[in-house]
Amino acid sequence: MNAVGTPPFRVVITHRVHSEVLDLLGRSCEVVANQTPEGLTRGELLSRCRDADALLVFMPDHVDEELLGRSPRLRIVAGALKGFDNIDVAACTARGIWVSYVEDLLTGPTADLAVGLLIALDRHIPAGDRHVRSGRHQGWRPELYGGGLAGRRVGIIGMGAVGRAVARRLRAFDAEVLYTDPAPLPAGDAAELGARSVPLETLLARSTAVVLTAPLTAETRHLIGPVALQRLPEGSLLVNVGRGSVVDENAVADALASGHLGGYAADVFAFEDWSDRGRPRDIPPRLLAQDGTLFTPHLGSAVRDVRLRIETAAARSVLDVRAGKPPPVAANRVNPRR
């Protein structure tokens, strides 16, 4: 108990964070941290949230009715993330619980990774690395020929902040950029990015590389399935840094196996999409076994100083709610409580 006989403001953190974040919260809160490499089990999370006032969560966490029902003191779910489809926002709002997230700190790192994955596929970098490590490399040979981004027509599906950042980077490589989005860019912005708006069917038919930066919605789930993949020119490349379930991963495996799809790179996977009730529980083994693939474990956000800024922003949202103020970036609106 504190000086006035009320319990301390208790913050449960589900994954490891920087020590600076623990110090920031620890000045005025009781912090229940998890500084191990692994996330909390469901049972551990439910147990720790019984008397939590704040919950600082990450993408692997799932905040649902069960958790909220066992957290009677909870006042904020602070997401150290940009998207929040793993949080039941409506249920939080009904209970007067804020949901905060972090805006626009991942855009640059994610766009950098998207272009890096595209270049790696295009230039056969993973295969080249394996070849050198195998001991068979004895000097230059005419093999592993790739393309290049200069002059390549690249389609971007989803022209939000990340899509625009990808377009800006591709322009520096002299690529031609097409895009599709429900809300086309203003003419001036499109001209500045060198990007042309086209319908999805046109983008697929005319692009030899496609970058997915779209969010997961009812409309985008499995947007890239068997029909969309067949519309791509043979040998095209596909990069996904949006949400895993925007593609049908089994259909991608089929397209790779047939040779129609030239390569697939992803930093996101369908099994991570907690908002999708029908999500798989792992990455399809057939997809993992295909040649011409390159997979990374959410490296889009794995930039040290950016991660610290994200965690700090989430922690400051917690402190704002503790002080009776709304968080600066929230997914909902509730009445502040003291």
UniProtKB/TrEMBL annotation:
Keywords: Oxidoreductase. SUPFAM superfamilies: Formate/glycerate dehydrogenase catalytic domain-like, NAD(P)-binding Rossmann-fold domains. This is Hydroxyacid dehydrogenase. Belongs to the D-isomer specific 2-hydroxyacid dehydrogenase family. Residues 115-300 form the D-isomer specific 2-hydroxyacid dehydrogenase NAD-binding domain. Residues 11-330 form the D-isomer specific 2-hydroxyacid dehydrogenase catalytic domain. GO terms for molecular function: glyoxylate reductase (NADPH) activity; hydroxypyruvate reductase (NADH) activity; NAD binding. It comes from Mycobacterium helveticum. One of its GO terms (cellular component) is cytosol. It holds the Pfam family 2-Hacid_dh_C.
